[in-house]
Structure formats: structure tokens, C-alpha cells
Write a structure and sequence with these properties.
26% of the residues lie in helices and 31% in strands. The protein has 196 residues and is α+β, with helices and mostly antiparallel strands. The protein has a single domain, classed as Peptide Deformylase, CATH 3.90.45.10. The strands form two sheets. It has a five-stranded antiparallel beta sheet, with helices on both faces. It has a two-stranded parallel sheet with strand order 1-7. The longest helix has 15 residues. It is globular.
Length: 196
């Protein structure tokens, strides 16, 4: 089932998400719905807060990204196999030179900006079967994971922009929170009370 994606301004996007355990109700159904929602919105990652759940869960599938002809063969190969579920993730190390890459977010449609992130990340997490993993990701794969990880920490990519860039997109963000945006997927917008 395709779920609505929560838009910029929804309070759940600013909460630090809670740890879950293997008894979390209907987890497989939730994962199936999240993948379907992500694919329906042409995304490559989706975090539980983006569908209104403040839990430490996100998933990625970068296979569509791997078709980008601007990438090296090595990058395409690493992204093509990057389809994972991350539960209770903790980044234990970020390393390497910071580099800029143009990012967007399903919760912030029609806004894309260059964001600086470090090139390498080491992350500990559990998969959908609650098996523990510790993996290292580099380049674009690391960036995708850092972006989704930020969601479970209550951080949006727009938080990483310079004060000038934030001012330049302020009206766009305000319009998104009011539902004044053209999208082709289901979204939930914050309830905005009109001032008298």
C-alpha cells in the first residue's frame, strides 16, 4: 500500500527516532509498504519519519541511480547492489574529504541544493531479520545513507545549507508546508492555522 509522505513542516520530521525491537508490530508489512511508497514516488531512499513513524528505520534502493551514465563503472556497480533495510542504525564514523552533491528529498519536493558531506561512512545497523551488520560505504552510496540516517536523527538536508541558501529557499519551504506544490505522489501536509 502506498502511504502518504509527510511534507516539510510536519513535526515528526524533527524528532529523534526511537529504537525498535523484533516484536515491532507488522514490520514486514511496513517494509513492503515503505518500498512501494518509495518506488511510487521515484525515490531511492525512505525513512520511517517520512511516513509519520518516529522509529529508527530507513531503507534504500539505489539501483535506478546506478543507471546514471555520469557515474564511473565502479560507482554504478556499487549502487546497483545497494538495496537494504537499516534498523536501529548508528553511524560510528564519517571520514574523508567533504564534497558537494546535489540532493533532494521526497518530503521537500521541488527543492534541490548542493550539500557537503564526507565521502566515507561506517554504520552499524540491523537488517529486517534483526541480524547485526557493520558496513562501510563510500561516495554516492555513503551520501544516500547519510541523508536517510539524518531523517532518523530529525535532520533535513536543508539544515546543512548556508544561511544565504536557507534564505533563498525560505518561500519554497513555506509553500511546501502549506501544500502549495505540484507533486505526483501522495503527501501529507502540516495543518496550518490561519492567522486572524
Amino acid at each position: 500500500m502506498i502511504l502518504p509522505i509527510f511534507a516539510y513542516g510536519e513535526p515528526v520530521l524533527r524528532k529523534k527516532a526511537a529504537v525498535i525491537d523484533a516484536d515491532y508490530p507488522k514490520l514486514q508489512e511496513l517494509l513492503d509498504n515503505m518500498f512501494e511508497t518509495m518506488y511510487g514516488a521515484s525515490g531511492i531512499g525512505l525513512a520511517a519519519p517520512q511516513i509519520g513513524l518516529p522509529i529508527r528505520l530507513f531503507l534504500v534502493d539505489a539501483s535506478s541511480f546506478a543507471e546514471d551514465e555520469d557515474l564511473t563503472e565502479e560507482e554504478r556497480e556499487s549502487l546497483g547492489g545497494l538495496k537494504k533495510v537499516f534498523i536501529n542504525a548508528q553511524i560510528v564514523e564519517e571520514d574523508g574529504d567533504e564534497w558537494a552533491f546535489n540532493e533532494g528529498c521526497l518530503s521537500i519536493p521541488d527543492v534541490r541544493e548542493d550539500v557537503f558531506r564526507q565521502s566515507d561512512v561506517v554504520i552499524e545497523y540491523q537488517d529486517e531479520n534483526f541480524k547485526k551488520h557493520r558496513d562501510t560505504f563510500t561516495g554516492i552510496a555513503a551520501r544516500i545513507i547519510q541523508h536517510e540516517y539524518d531523517h532518523i536523527e530529525g535532520i533535513l538536508f536543508t539544515d546543512k545549507l548556508s544561511p544565504l541558501k536557507k534564505r533563498l529557499i525560505k518561500t519554497k519551504l513555506s509553500n511546501i508546508s502549506k501544500g502549495k506544490v505540484s507533486i505526483d505522489y501522495r503527501m501529507r501536509f502540516p495543518n496550518i492555522k490561519k492567522k486572524r
